[in-house]
Amino acid sequence: MLKVRVIPTLLWKGAGLAKGVGFDSWRRVGSVVPAVKVYNAREVDELILVDIEATEGKSIPDLETISDFSDDCFVPLTVGGGITSLDHITALLRAGADKITLNSSAFSHRDLINQSAMKFGSQCIVVSIDVKKESSGQWMCYSHAGKKRQDVDALSWAKEVTSRGAGEILLTSIDRDGTMTGYDLELIAAISSAVRIPVIASGGAGSYEHMVDAVKIGGASAVAAASIFHFTELTPKGAKDSLQSAGIPVRRPYAGI
What we know:
With 257 residues, the protein is an alpha/beta fold. It has one domain (5-245): TIM Barrel (Alpha-Beta Barrel), CATH 3.20.20. The chain is 35% helix and 27% strand. It has helices spanning 32-40, 52-55, 63-71, 86-95, 104-108, 111-120, 154-163, 185-194, 208-216, 227-231, 236-245; strands at residues 5-13, 16-21, 24-30, 47-51, 77-80, 99-102, 125-133, 139-143, 148-153, 168-173, 199-202, 222-225. An eight-stranded parallel β-barrel has the order 1-4-5-6-7-10-11-12, surrounded by seven helices. Helix 3 (63-71) runs parallel beside helix 4 (86-95). The protein starts with a strand and ends in a 12-residue tail after the last helix. The model has no long low-confidence stretch (mean pLDDT 92).
């Protein structure tokens, strides 16, 4: 089993970080750079930074600001929001991003997944899949920060983005987002078993046990979280301790010989 990653998610909205519930009711939770500096020292494996306003279609990637953020980031950084072209991806990588994540543009420009994977390598391309469960029980995809329903179910879309060259899937339950009631384990398990690329579980983490369940029951390769780190005393290091205690391999700082 590969080592499971713990990945804080930073949702950047306007002047600073924000967090909501169900992709709505956003509230300010701090500034980006101080958060990045804290996470540098807390055993995180990666960071995901998503520009919410760009995701909603209000702007393109703010390269200058992202470059400033990356100067203070000493762990792999995945950046998303407002990416609609290969030029955007090239510029973001030059600005300091290690990976990029596509969501809204992946639906409207599906060949962008193929083209970006071919040019930059699949390991660089994360496709974000935001999901709501319908009354019928079907999981449907949403874009534009959860505002636009797409006419495709999550399972079919996960298989398609994999076939187009995506290297990872960031899978978020909109229903669970910000609730801290636990990940949607059924959703995670369905997607993880349907594709052969890593699935990052997102949306609903409220305890270390939830993270353990996402891996052991859901089959996730990584766990992403925001509220648990913003609003509780739980830490990425504590998450790794709990995962390790449950027999799940995690990355630890090199302690020398």
